[in-house]
Amino acid sequence: MTNIPIPISGESHHQHPPQTWKTYFSFSTDHKVIGIQYLVTSFVFFLVGGIFAMILRGELITPEADLIDRTVYNGMFTMHGTVMLFLWTFPSLVGLANYIVPIMIGARDMAFPRLNAAAFWMVPVVGILMIASFFVPGGPAQSGWWAYPPVSTQNPTGNLITGQVLWLLAVAISGVSSIMGAVNFVTTIVKMRSPGMGFFRMPLMVWAVFSAQIIQLFGLPALTAGAVMLLLDITVGTAFFDPSKGGNPVMFQHYFWFYSHPAVYVIILPIFGVFSEIFPVYSRKPLFGYKVVAVSSMLIAVVSGIVWVHHLYVSGTPAWMRLFFMVTTMFVSIPTGIKVFAWVATIWGGKIRLNTPMLFALGGLVMFVFAGITGIMLSSVPVDVHVNNTYFVVGHFHYVLYGTVTMGMYAAIYHWFPKMTGRMFHEGWGKIHFWLAFIGTNLNFLPMHPLGLQGMLRRAASYSPELIGWNIVTSLGSFLLGMSTLPFIFNMLISWMDGEKAPANPWRAIGLEWTISSPPPVENFEEIPVITCEPYGYGKSELMASSEHD
Amino acid sequence: MKIRQFLNFLTIVTGAVAVTLTSLWIGKQAYSWFPPQGAAESHLIDDLFSFLVTLGSLIFLGVTATLFYSICFHRAQANDLGDGPHIEGNVTLEVVWTAIPIMLVLWIAGYSYQVYEEMGIQGPAHQLHLHNPMKMETAYAVADEALAVGEGVEHIDVFAKQWAWVFHYPESNVTSTELHLPEGSRIRLNLHSEDVLHGFYVPAFRLKQDIIPGEDLDFEFTPIRPGAYDLTDSQYSGTYFATMRAKVIVESPSEYQQWLSKAASQTPSPAPNQAASEYALKIENGIDSGWKTVEPAAPPLVNFPS
Lengths: 550, 306
Fold this sequence. Notes:
The complex is a heterodimer.
Chain A: H1 31-60, H2 70-104, H3 113-132, H4 163-191, H5 204-235, H6 249-283, H7 290-304, H8 319-331, H9 333-347, H10 356-379, H11 381-387, H12 391-421, H13 427-445, H14 448-454, H15 468-498, H16 541-547
Helix pairs in contact in A: 1-2, 1-3, 1-15, 2-3, 2-4, 2-6, 2-12, 3-4, 4-5, 5-6, 5-7, 6-7, 6-9, 6-10, 6-12, 7-9, 10-12, 10-13, 12-13, 12-14, 13-15
Chain B: H1 2-29, H2 40-73, H3 91-119, H4 124-131, H5 139-148, E1 153-161, E2 164-169, E3 174-176, E4 179-182, E5 186-193, E6 198-202, E7 207-211, E8 217-221, E9 227-233, E10 245-251, H6 253-265, E11 269-270, H7 274-285, E12 301-302
Parallel strand pairs in B: 1-5, 4-10
Antiparallel strand pairs in B: 1-2, 2-3, 5-8, 6-7, 6-9, 9-10, 11-12
Helix pairs in contact in B: 1-2, 2-3
């Protein structure tokens, strides 16, 4: 192949994919390059956050706080949560969407390619600020990823630049980056669909990303405003949240969760999209109830805006508010249930192939059902009064964020890896990775539920000695989970460099991304495709005929 | 063909029965996952939780069993490159699996509401009263006042600070770092924080309430089982958060009165405090193992140091 450098300007009509690794370190405006930049960067931070987690679990393998100082423990769990959310789940999903959405809608790039690149390059800045906070006097932020005042405004060092200040700056920058991304995605999906692609001909991944990015648009300003107010409280001495000067600390919790609960749907909706793409391919059946599943994503986005107070049941919230938000929260399960049943019905009676992406998607689905059920339990006010802030909650959201989102992310990476790199991955190692990750996840997070019911609190560096049993299991599970990333990393690296060449459509899948070469040419389509039908035509003879040519 | 249909029917019925029985069994097991039932409220919450576990198991096992059956019996043959049947959906089925969850959710919400009412844990009602900008008397506030003058309610003040608990018994003017409670009486705690957010949480009571600096919150419950329990801070409060624990002793009313009079006769002395001693050790040894922290408050001076 050639070594022609890829011009940054959008006018190029080179039909070659970016060839050199240097492209990935440049300010490229190609949505595919940016997508991979996001994915790789966020995966590096995923490993960093994972190491933090294993240090935390190392501390918790014994009841006493004996491995690391309490301040270090507190800094670690704060950074674990922050890195995993702001530097792994959000950017990795934006990266996936960046790569796949424009191709899925038959576009040559995102609507604003330069904005896209600018949004990406803010992610390393956020990461550097977070890591730098370890080296300022007083250490990194130690108030949890919620940063609730007054703990977050306490400043024992007296310095102006503290870990908490850097943390808030980083979160605000991350917010700005995500808003830029959201504007870009919503515009791209509304304006740049190819001829004939009505809303009800969009693949469900596109629907899911569309819904998720709309949440970003209405939710993020609240979090960013809250972060800025907190920053002013710390640095300039305003009293938005300072009770000793007439401020209200609970107010911050509303700013924070008004965004940060919907944020969970921002994270999980694209994974629902991934499931909806993968199950039809490996079951050889159309997605069951396509239109209802599409609309259910939008419904989730709407309901997600009125559930945030379920994080504040015990924060001094009045009874009517507790009960109102209990009902709204429970109603999230309706559109979500529709999706789950639709996936099961899609798989039912199909011709199932358990390739690595399918295994990860199935594992993710099973763990998501579990997480959804504990979620309903948590939404019930009396149950939450007991388990709020305990490991029951930690177990629940790790089943969402690891069991579902990270498993779904792996499914997506394996599924689109041949498309992104033009190489096939090693199937056997993929399966080993799946079983290690699946067993590790359950070993790690299932015991957290009984621990929480017994009353073990999150964020505690020490706990009562009778809880040691399940803690040992959890810690061992976390180490296994850490190990499980190794086969993945080696598989990806070796396959990318030296894997078997991938055909355009290795999975015999239907979808625009499978009609172009692997990896796709710079502007994706030589001719903009015209769409004539709904996206999941499995079992229709004429469509199969065309896709088998590849 | 007839036999085949019958076998399918049999499989589904057997599966459904197995899933239902297993779910009922798991629901019963749920009680054993909790600490002892120290308060009247614990029973209500455990019953609700067991019900949710039964229902949840039914859904989880139902979905996973269906998936598992599919994975086992609907696999593609190695050389079969064909597709499955082209089924785009089924309106009846979709209506059913929307309607049933709606009914279940309403049922769960109704039951939860009922349990919540029976618990009557106060706290937030007060909050509404304090925060009502119109200065209107709400129904909650009125009910609150009525309860306040009720007989047999034991008032105790709870003070939380970084990182110690102090309990004040206003009627006998006793202070303690151990929370003694008479069995069978309605307890009304008045929760105060001197610095940051804290949380009052006794797992054996299944009860929790955040404590907000600058605001008084009332919190009510009824301990019913004599014994010693743990109180922990449930809202992250900084460096020594995990050390902020206290013993809760539930005892018979006569033992409680004895304890009160004994404590009243003692002169206040400093209570042992884990945060303060860990911090002192850190300063003394000059260990550079961590980062600078907010200094713990001095060990509280109380009549009854534990």
